[in-house]
């Protein structure tokens, strides 16, 4: 299967304010991660990040069974030394491509979301799940640990205690439990309406001034790394950069004129 087939790009919305969809397209394998997906996802992210008409990116899995079942065990390499494994994985830290994006990224998750699939979702800004979702990091049961950021991102999302519970047991988590612990942001009304609900959320965000959404994302993500004083300084710097922009004036004018604002990113 080629990169183009394993990862598909879809675009919605003409002109500015569009939504770009990245589709993991290996439904017969529950979109298990192979080298095509490892190469295809960063390439698709880069393409949509560079597209001025796209303001929000959504990642979803094709087929009814799930978002992503994790690594494709058919591609497991045998007889590698620790050094060989480290070199190979260091050269393919594909999930980290999400960390370099300015545009908001939503993970639309249904069915199975396991291992590397959950690590991919953890790197997204918003996790929107179907009621049928099953999330897990089962690697310790295979004699491994998560290798795509799971041990680092999960504690930042749910706290170290809950993260260790999931990491050590490999336990599976459903939609409502995941929402209660803060692992996911939203739960769809039903499996059949999830994509429409995700689309509505993406369109709502895409309608906002794009520089403001990028700066909000930058500041919120930096909060995980910076001390409070440095974070407040960054927030003030970004606020000051936004204040004289045309989109701020357009928002105020549209409010006075009782019309929908048209944001240009200027």
From TrEMBL:
Source species: Pelomonas aquatica
Task: Name the UniProt key words of this record, in alphabetical order.
Answer: Lyase
Q: Which PROSITE patterns match?
A: ENOYL_COA_HYDRATASE
User: So what family is this one in?
Assistant: Belongs to the enoyl-CoA hydratase/isomerase family.
Q: Name one GO biological process term.
A: fatty acid beta-oxidation
Q: Does the keyword Lyase apply?
A: yes
Q: What is this protein called?
A: Enoyl-CoA hydratase/isomerase family protein
The UniProt record lists the keyword Phosphoprotein: no
* Gene3D superfamilies, per the entry: 2-enoyl-CoA Hydratase, Chain A, domain 1, Lyase 2-enoyl-coa Hydratase, Chain A, domain 2
| One MF annotation (Gene Ontology) recorded for this entry | hydro-lyase activity
**InterPro entries, alphabetized:** ClpP/crotonase-like_dom_sf, Enoyl-CoA_hyd/isom_CS, Enoyl-CoA_hydra/iso, Enoyl-CoA_hydra_C
């Amino acid at each position: 299967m080629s990169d183009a087939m394993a990862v598909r790009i879809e675009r919605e919305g003409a002109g500015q304010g569009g939504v770009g969809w990245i589709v993991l397209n290996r439904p017969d394998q529950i979109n298990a991660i192979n080298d095509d997906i490892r190469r295809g996802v960063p390439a698709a992210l880069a393409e949509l990040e560079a597209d001025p008409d796209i303001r929000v990116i959504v990642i979803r899995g094709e087929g009814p069974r799930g978002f992503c079942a994790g690594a494709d065990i058919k591609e497991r390499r045998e007889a590698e030394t620790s050094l060989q494994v480290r070199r190979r994985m260091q050269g393919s830290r594909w999930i980290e491509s999400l960390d370099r994006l300015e545009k908001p990224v939503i993970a639309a998750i249904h069915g199975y979301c396991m291992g590397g699939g959950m690590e991919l979702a953890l790197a997204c800004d918003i996790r929107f799940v179907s009621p049928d979702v099953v999330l897990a990091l089962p690697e310790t049961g295979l004699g491994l640990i998560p290798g795509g950021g799971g041990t680092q991102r999960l504690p930042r999302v749910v706290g170290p205690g809950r993260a260790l519970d999931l990491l050590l047991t490999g336990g599976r988590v459903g939609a409502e439990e995941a929402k209660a612990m803060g692992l996911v942001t939203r739960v769809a009304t039903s499996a059949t309406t999830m994509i429409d609900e995700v689309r509505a959320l993406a369109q709502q965000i895409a309608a906002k001034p794009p520089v403001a959404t990028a700066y909000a994302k930058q500041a919120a993500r930096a909060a995980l790394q910076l001390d409070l004083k440095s974070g407040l300084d960054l927030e003030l710097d970004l606020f000051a950069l936004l204040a004289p922009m045309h989109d701020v004036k357009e928002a105020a004018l549209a409010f006075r004129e009782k019309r929908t604002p048209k944001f240009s990113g200027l």
